[in-house]
Amino acid sequence: MNSTITMEGGQRTAINKDFIPNLTLLLDLENTLLDTNVDKFISAYFKALSEFMTPVVDPDIFLSSLANATKSMIENNDPSKTLKQVFDKDFYQNLRVESEKIQPRITQFYDEVFPTLANLTKPKPEAIALVDWALSQGYQLAIATNPLFPMTATHQRLKWAGLAPEDKSFKVISSYETFHFSKPNPAYFAEVLGRMGWPEGSVVVVGDDLEQDMRSGNILGLPGFWINDSQSKKIYDVNLAGQGSIASLRPWLERTEIATLEPTTYTPKGLIAYLISVPASISGLLNQFSDRDLTRRLIPDEWSLTEIICHLRDTEREINFPRLRMILELDIPFIPSRDNADWAETRKYNDQDISKALNEFTSERIQLVNILKTLKREWQLEARHAIFGPTNLQELVKFMVEHDKLHIRQIWTILNQVIN
């Protein structure tokens, strides 16, 4: 079943509703799906890795470089760089050793030594039951674990949890190779949703960490279910939709009206996180296409992938930026509507390079976000829009986010067409 949506000045876009279940669960891994003493596990992991690397690098230098590079990943806010790119640049620069001399041994570590750390964790049978039930309901599931590990390490931990990826239909599993943000940056959860094609309907963040899971999700307006077996901790300024053990999540969902779990708020900080996540999400989605698919109109009357990216770039340059400047520089300006539906044809988007267009869009988006980060009361500056009527900057930025979501869903629909 298809539904057609029209955005201001844009293309009429068919969204395939068959790919959009009514509930999306963003599931943390450690102490949510897998019983883990995180401090003990990380200590043992770092120790085992540094000792295994001793034949090629001094363990103290290795540990220091590893810690610094991990910190750089946590602090990254650049949607043009994956966490692996951030890690590698910092890590190998500090080691002063070429990656080619070390990488084979690191690969060997994950193949031979990392699996021995399984004895520091325990599966949760109730988590396996929850995942199986949720999949049987048609819900979309993402493994929203902090993407500071390589994918092989995350896959292994899922197997320790009894949730082997090859046996479960997880839409996204975050890892440092393909993700650009990490917890507690709220852009991380926005990137997860973007990589899932911005599923419509309700979303629940499920995790055990108040700061990294619950508060981060709150910034995006995402309801959170806190995995808190004891329910003994005091909670300050964190909005929880629910809490309890992983076993209690199913009955909680069964007695909760799913429609009440839709994202609700668009705070300035949340809007900024959504905006900066978009180039990162698109990059991750495009990596799943072959070069031959980038300029083909794979769905009748739909733009190609290249046309979509060029449209986003030119919309940022010629619509979003000028409107932002008008509101900041003029008193209650009138904002005319722009019809850019014919740009794909008149500007010959399909003859352009998609990588260059994505880089240009990313650069424009970073500049726009950097301006928005400096604003305070300006978010409430008023304007008059030709279509939407009286509005303000915060609402117009929300429209930008909705426009981005529309085109990410469009890319997701094309991806499903290619896969199926």
Counting helices, strands and paired strands, the structural category is alpha/beta
What helical percentage do the residues reach? 40-55%
Could you give the order of strands across the largest sheet?
Answer: 7-6-3-8-9-10
Q: Main beta sheet, described?
A: 6 strands, parallel
Give the terminus-to-terminus CA distance. Answer: 15 Å
Oligomeric form of this entry? single chain
Anisotropy-based shape:
globular
Q: Number of helix segments?
A: 14
DSSP strand content: 5-15%
Low-confidence stretches: 1-7, 9-20
Count of beta strands: 13
Radius of gyration: 22 Å
Mean pLDDT: 91
* Topology pattern, helix = H, strand = E: EEEEHHHHEHEHEHEHEEHHHEHHEEH
Describe the structure.
It is a single chain. With 420 residues, this protein is of the alpha/beta class. It is 48% helix and 12% strand. The protein contains 14 helices and 13 strands. Strands 7-6-3-8-9-10 form a six-stranded parallel sheet, sandwiched between helices. The chain has a three-stranded mixed sheet with strand order 11-12-13. A two-stranded antiparallel sheet has the order 1-2. Strand 6, helix 6 and strand 7 form a beta-alpha-beta unit. Helix 10 runs antiparallel to helix 13 and helix 11 runs antiparallel to helix 14. The radius of gyration is 22 Å and the shape is globular. The two termini are 15 Å apart.
Features:
single chain; 13 strands; 48% helix; alpha/beta; 420 residues; disordered N terminus; six-stranded parallel beta sheet
Concise overview:
The chain contains 14 helices and 13 strands. It is an alpha/beta fold and 420 residues long.
